[in-house]
Amino acid sequence: MLWHCRDREIDLGHRTLVMGVVNITPDSFSDGGRYAAPAPALAHARQLLDEGADLVDLGGESTRPGSHPVPADEQWRRIGPVVETLAREGRALISVDTSSASVAERALLAGAHVVNDVTALGDPAMAAVIAAAGAGLVLMHMRGRPADMQRDARYDDAPAEVATFLGDRLAAAASAGIARDRVALDPGIGFGKTVRHNLELLARLETLVALDRPVLVGASRKSFIGQILDLPVDQRLEGSLASAAVAVFLGARIVRAHDVAATVRAVRVAVALREARRPTRA
Question: How far is it, in rounded angstroms, from Cα 226 to Cα 30?
């Protein structure tokens, strides 16, 4: 289970990465714009790396339910200084959370390694940008767009339908010249799904694992946890850790998280439990 991200080769056969979230936006659902300026965003990214994040995911456009697109130039104004500084420092594996090919191209030229695309190559120019750079790619499932994705969240079998969609997008990426070993898959927890759909996707994660690419799960602080526990966004740590641990045990190879230090510890235990299921050699 290798994941190639430009010049980086990451062996995920016996480990799970923790991706630290850095929302460089004024309207994030999880942190209310605390890191909307480059200086606090950069400090937060460094803190997450100190806490054990394997990579940081920098986003200049909120994708919370009801949000609207942010122009590419504004996205780059927000994330560009952080991408450039982290790349110069050479410490971080850098992911950019964007569905804009022009933003992705600028970020990759500046030294980013991964494009985390919630639209799964929805921008017709995105595949060529990824292929030319040899970048890592995260393909995510979302029904609709953030502005309207929760209006008609209906599935007959959410895990099966999400797996079919991601399998099709994986094939489309390959047809566009993106090597299979550069792609990770994200079921899109909270993106056009009800609480029940999110739970089914986590409980039946093997449906996605069967596609034989690293599965990324981003359940951290999501609203389904708040609805289960009846808690606001800043009190969802335990629910986030429980969701991450279950996902890792069932095969997730990347966990996207806001609370990195705690998540790193939970993931380490979940990986140990997952590895204990492997047959031992005589």
Answer: 12
C-alpha–C-alpha distance, residues 249 and 48, integer Å: 23
Alpha helices in 151-252 (DSSP H): 158-175, 195-203, 206-209, 223-229, 237-249
- Alpha-carbon distance of 259 to 89, in angstroms, equals 23
Closest CA to 256 of 214, 206, 211: 214
64, 145 contact by CB (below 8 A): no
Please tell me which residue in 193, 222, 253, 274 is annotated as part of the active site.
222
Residues 6 or more apart whose Cβ sits within 8 Å of residue 30: 21, 23, 220, 221, 233, 258
Domain ranges of the chain: 2-275
Specify the length of the chain in residues. Answer: 282
> In degrees rounded to 5, what are phi and psi of residue 75?
-55, -45
Phi, psi of 137 (to 5 degrees): -140, 135
Other Cβ atoms within 10 Å of 26 Cβ, number? 13
| pLDDT tens per residue across span 192-208 | 999 999 999 999 999 99
pLDDT in tens, 116-138: 999 999 999 999 999 999 999 99
| 256 catalytic residue (yes or no) | yes
Token reading at 205: 């994660």
Give the distance from CA 67 to its chain's centroid: 18
The answer for residues whose C-beta is within 8 angstroms of residue 97's C-beta and 6 or more apart is 57, 58, 59, 60, 61, 63, 116, 118
Inform me whether the pLDDT recorded for 67 exceeds 90.
no
If we measure between CA atoms, which residue out of 173, 151, 135, 9 comes closest to residue 66? Answer: 151
Between β-strands 2-5 and 8-11, what pairing exists: parallel, antiparallel or unpaired? Answer: antiparallel
| Contact (Cβ atoms closer than 8 angstroms) between residue 269 and residue 245 | yes
Does the domain formed by 2-275 have CATH 3.40.50.300? no
Residue 198 tokens read as 């999110």
